[in-house]
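call fold(seq) -> tokens
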Amino acid sequence: MQKTKAKRFEIQYSVLKDEAKIKGTFVIESAKNRDDASRLAKLNVSTKERVFIQYVKILKVKRVSTDSAVK
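ret:
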């Protein structure tokens, strides 16, 4: 059985909260691919911002190399 390494993705998101748009960025490590990263990001943002998951929009998912994230 092969072990798959977790990849890092930089997530840019936008949230509609109290009729105001909130934009933010964070890095997620535990995703295997872009789809998983996007799904996990929506869940994390909705929990963090305390809004329904429908109000979260993922603007950009970008792969980040492990070397550049350490610096």
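The mean pLDDT is 86.
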